[in-house]
Structure formats: structure tokens, C-alpha cells
Amino acid sequence: xxxxxxxxxxxxxxxxxHLYGYDLTQMAGNxxxxxxxxxxxxxxxxxxxxxxxxxxxxxxxxxxGIETPSAVAARIVYSGGNSVNTAVAAGVMxxxxxxxxxxxxxxEIISKAAADNTDASDLVNNFKAKGERVAGFGxxxxxxxxxxxxxxxxxxxxxxxxxxxxxxLEIEAALSSExxxxxxxxxxxxxxxxxxxxxxxxxxxxxxxIARTPGLVAxxxxxxxxxxxxxxxxxxEVEYDGPRPRELPKNKN
Length: 253
Known about the structure:
The chain has helices at 24-27, 33-42, 48-60, 69-79, 84-93, 103-116, 120-130, 146-158, 163-178, 186-196, 204-226, and strands spanning 10-13, 16-19, 22-23. The protein has two domains: 9-45, no CATH class; 59-228, CATH 1.10.230.10. It is globular. It is mainly alpha-helical. The model has no long low-confidence stretch (mean pLDDT 95).
């Protein structure tokens, strides 16, 4: 009999949960959470270099301040009287093209450029001609993203500074020669490193969501413990630029 739902990810064997065939009760205490995440996303346990590289990615992306759209969204939603899970979900929903959501697209760009051996200047000019942004480059705060620099150091140590990282750095150089500094940002370096590790492009956004969710939980819990409910912008933070008071037209009825 054919069943409607099929999955090769998880099942129960002799009453114990197994993830891609590995007994989770045996993995507990022997493998790290990041190793288990890697297994869940790829179907395989990481080797030692991949384990350290993947854990470094998750660690460095766990949070980036209360000012980010995801943290603001999570805290505001909790402040309105919602549950922790609703508030954290709101924070995750705030992750998008401009905030942690460009990894998949960046993986696509870097992968194709490396496969075709596309000249970085030609790639940049192509995007510029179409009026499109090259995903994974540029940052509101940084001329050089310190998170990227640290991941590059680790990638060099572990042997992950391969063709995808090289292509990403070529694109960064080409972009920065065209205008103001547009650094390889956290999305871009994660994209290149996931490609170096052989991960599918479809996991790109998910990796950032996994990394950032603990930070969002921390923000929501801090909001619950330290702040009063119903946060709102103060009048001093808002400038009205709409019409001045005006007379209503006479009622036509």
C-alpha cells in the first residue's frame, strides 16, 4: 500500500528516534548540536573540518544587536501581548532579502560564476546594467565585515578557502573598484563556505534562520523580563509629513 507521506529524514526504530539512520539517543552526549544540524540538512555526519567550519558559521551569526529588523520585530510582537513562540516566529519572518535572506541567491551567483569562470568585473557590470544588486555584498555598518574576516581565517585554517571563496573575493574587489566599499558580508561568506562544503543552495536561508533563532529567543526573553508591555515609538522619534488640518468637503448627501 502506497502511503501519502514519505520522508527519509527521521523514523523510530525499536522505540528510539533515528535521524538518517543514526540513533539520536546515542548521538546525545557524543555529537554537538551543530553536528546534528549538519546531519539533518545533508543526511551525513560532518568530518572534523566541516564540523568546525559549520559550527563557526552558526556561532558568528547568532545575533547582531537589538537594532536589527528581526530583533525589533520579535520584541515588539511580544510587547503587544503575544506568546514567546509567536514573537520568535515574527522575528524569523522579518528575515528577508536585506537581512539574512540573501544566502541562497548568493550561492546561486557564486556557484554559476565559479562554474563558468565568469570574470568578476563582467559579472558586476552585468548586474549594474540590469539595475540589480549582487546578493551577499555590502553592509549598512561595515566597510569591512569583521564576521567575514574571521570566517575567512577559519576557512584558511581548515582548507575551505577554495574556488567559491576565491570567486566571492574577486566579486568583492570588482564591486569595490566600481563605487564605495561593498564588502563581502555575512550572507556572502556563508554562501561561499556552504558551497565549499557541498551543501545544497536550498539550505542557504535555513542556515541563517537556524543560527539567528537562539538570538531571537534571547531578545524575547529579555523583553519579557526587563521591559513593560506595549512598547511604542515616542512622539519625539516621529515626524509627521502629511497634509495639515483641512476642512472636510460638504456632505454631498
